[in-house]
Amino acid sequence: MTEKKMKKLGYQVIDVIVDHRHNLSSKRVFNKPDFEFLDSMINPTMPLEADDPTAVFKELNQMVSEHVTHIDHPRFFSFIPGPSNYYSVLADTLSTGHNVFAGHWMGGAYASMVETRTLDWLANIMEYPEGSGGIFTSGGSMANLTALVAARENKLPEDHSKGTIYYSEQTHSSLSKALRILGFKPENMRKIDSDEQFRIDTTALLTTIEKDVKKGFRPFCIIGNAGTTNTGAVDDLNALSQLAKEHQLWFHIDAAYGGAAMLSKEHQHKLKGIGKADSITLDPHKWWFQPYEMGCLLVQDRQTLKKAFSVQAEYLADTVGDSREINYYEHGVQLSRSFRALKLYTFFRCVGLNKIGEDVSRGFENAAYIETLLQQKDYWEIITKPYLGIISFRAKLFESEDKNDALNAKLSQHVLDNGYAMINTTQLKGHTALRMCPIHPETTTAFLDKTFEIMNAFIERKNANSL
Ligand SMILES: Cc1ncc(COP(=O)(O)O)c(C=O)c1O
């Protein structure tokens, strides 16, 4: 390709991205194109001969702009949103454009140094001591998997057949998945009940550990939650850390959703004790506003990761250097890996942690505002108050709870179809509930008012029809 052609194609992509970010709030949120439409748009014939790149990019630009659900939309309130940010998009483009390698110091010294520095900043935010370390991963699931390998290899290096691990039934499914990948059987996994506020029952936890010891099991790890996906619940991190210490267990905290709260001056106290964990999962592609894929595992003692993952080979011998020069292939699963750190590093530098903290606080304010909107109508029941930027609730019109379950499912579908906002259901206390996670810093109270106008009108119509 000529230089001129390369630039022209590139500038077109940038134009589309900038246009997307500027006009996002006027777009509908939910887009699930028909299977038949996608089937017709994506030709099954293998492309043996080249297409015209200008035409290909024209099609791609249109498909990606118009036919995807906008997870980065300020009215996407489902699951955990991914607001992203433009500086990191550019940084990602830069590192991809140079195909920077971040697997070891020899092949990527600058990348490794940026990763080390950025991890140090995160460790500092999490109140970790000197000597801590970590690794950037594809996301929270991979960070959790990496943590469990570290826990197993450091606590039960020889034989883990009798090893048992403890976590609340509200813990993210990626941890059960990681345990399955690691070869643990259901009989090694202990799902502990949670209390009314969906925090792990620490008394039940202690009893279960003691029973297991008596039965000849080898408890080796407790997982705590710093922001569950369902409701944003935070386990009693100090109590868990104390229990782990007394029984010499690895203490892992899944802060994939909630870890960013440490940036909010007003709310960081809610994660008190987080720095006592042996490992912490963070997920910068959530509330740290990074594009996918950007997860992170921090460990209190950097050597624990090396112990778990360092496997040498003759063709890698030349990469072993000065102890300060971290080879990230020795901290995780991947050898060849992209320069993920650059996007977070760039974002921190271009925006500054103080402003990012204010943006995180906006999520808390939005969730508190939603609570006031719910209080205005009798048919809303708040299931969990907004502790960590997530609020769960349900509409109650009928005596029959089954009918109310169906109503809430229909309401969610109505919001999706309407397109103005996106809200999904979950199951809480045996019933269908709605949950909102309004952490996008560009979410306004006007957006929230309009979303509730749409929902209230639907419920009031249903009510009138049923009378
Ligand atoms: C608490 C929690 N842990 C782990 C994960 C998994 O993270 P990822 O989707 O980045 O793999 C999520 C995802 O929503 C989460 O909310």
UniProtKB/TrEMBL annotation:
Cofactor: pyridoxal 5'-phosphate
Stretches assigned to coiled coil: none
Keyword DNA-binding among UniProt keywords: no
Pfam family of the protein (one): Pyridoxal_deC
Keywords: Aminotransferase, Decarboxylase, Lyase, Pyridoxal phosphate, Transferase
Family: Belongs to the group II decarboxylase family.
Protein name: Aminotransferase class I/II-fold pyridoxal phosphate-dependent enzyme
Transmembrane segments: none
Gene Ontology MF: a single term: transaminase activity
Natural source organism: Pricia mediterranea
Claim: Transferase is one of the keywords in the record: yes
